[in-house]
């Protein structure tokens, strides 16, 4: 089964993709996590992506498509995968179709902008393994370190309030139109993001299990 998680920045795509990955035993592929790894390693791709990410814009399609092409060709994606944060533009969605990747289901996690703005202030991230926490809704065992790999937890540079606003604007202009694209193909299901992570997970699982 190949699944896409759509939704605004901070809607909970990464959190739900991780849960669905464990439940369905297929990998969650996050372009955001891969890009942050590229930036941290100082790769050519990372250097090109950095300024777009830090300003709240989108990384150019050719870089992202290259990343996805390589990632979904890995053996662990052979029985299905979950795309978290891809596609984000019409050109990326059209690339997926042209490349013959069949998408079974697109889940849009809907959370109003006002809620996202307050929620993002509490996110803490592990830049080593990509895990994401929330001081109130999904706390790590120790406030300062990652439960999975013990690395230090930080506030992502693009979680600064002014960058969050710019990411939301980018989302509404460039990514939200993909809802119509997938609705037209009969693949879109919407989950209303809830106050508690576990409640959104329950609703997401109901959609996944049809
Ligand atoms: P990316 O890392 O994908 O960022 P994003 O889409 O902005 O999404 P986030 O990771 O911020 O949020 P999320 O929806 O995964 O929410 P999360 O589960 O963490 O991309 C970063 C940047 O890379 C982009 O801005 C862009 O520049 C670039 N990029 C990536 N993909 C690209 C592409 N395809 N094309 C071009 N550029 C691309 O949850 C957020 C917080 O809320 C967490 O703290 C979580 O614990 C908490 N939370 C989650 N669910 C709930 C809940 N139900 N109740 C309360 N709290 C919750």
Question: What is the CATH architecture term?
Answer: 3-Layer(aba) Sandwich
Residues in β-strands, percent: 15-25%
Main beta-sheet strand count, sense and barrel state:
5 strands, parallel
Which segments are poorly predicted (pLDDT under 50) over 5 or more consecutive residues? none
> In which range does the helix fraction lie?
40-55%
CATH topology: Rossmann fold
Q: Radius of gyration in whole Å, from Cα?
A: 16 Å
What does this structure look like?
- This protein has helices at residues 13-24, 31-41, 44-55, 61-72, 90-98, 113-120, 161-175, 178-183, 197-208; strands at residues 2-7, 28-30, 81-84, 105-110, 123-126, 132-134, 153-154, 188-192.
- By secondary structure, the chain is α/β, with parallel strands linked by helices.
- It has a single domain, classed as 3-Layer(aba) Sandwich (Rossmann fold).
- Strands 2-3-1-4-8 form a five-stranded parallel beta sheet, sandwiched between helices. The chain has a three-stranded antiparallel beta sheet with strand order 6-5-7, with no helix packed on it.
- It has nine helices and eight strands.
- The two termini are 13 Å apart.
- BIS(adenosine)-5'-pentaphosphate (AP5) is lined by residues 7, 9-15, 30-32, 35, 52-53, 57-59, 64, 85-86, 88, 92, 119, 123, 132-134, 137-138, 158, 167, 193-197, 200.
């Amino acid at each position: 089964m190949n699944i896409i998680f759509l939704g605004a920045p901070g809607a909970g795509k990464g959190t739900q993709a991780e849960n669905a990955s464990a439940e369905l035993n297929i990998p969650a592929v996050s372009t955001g996590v891969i890009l942050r790894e590229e930036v941290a390693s100082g790769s050519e791709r990372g250097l090109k992506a950095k300024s777009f990410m830090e300003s709240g814009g989108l990384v150019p399609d050719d870089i992202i498509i290259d990343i996805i092409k390589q990632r979904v060709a890995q053996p662990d994606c052979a029985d299905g995968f979950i795309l978290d944060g891809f596609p984000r533009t019409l050109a990326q969605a059209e690339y997926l179709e042209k490349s013959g990747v069949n998408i079974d289901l697109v889940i849009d996690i809907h959370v109003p902008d006002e809620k996202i703005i307050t929620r993002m202030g509490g996110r803490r991230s592990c830049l080593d393994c990509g895990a994401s926490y929330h001081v109130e809704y999904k706390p790590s065992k120790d406030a300062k370190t990652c439960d999975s790999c013990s690395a230090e937890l930080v506030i992502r540079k693009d979680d600064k309030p002014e960058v969050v606003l710019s990411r939301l604007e980018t989302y509404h202009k460039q990514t939200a139109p993909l809802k119509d694209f997938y609705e037209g193909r009969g693949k879109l299901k919407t989950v209303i993001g809830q106050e508690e992570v576990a409640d959104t997970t329950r609703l997401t699982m109901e959609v996944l299990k049809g």
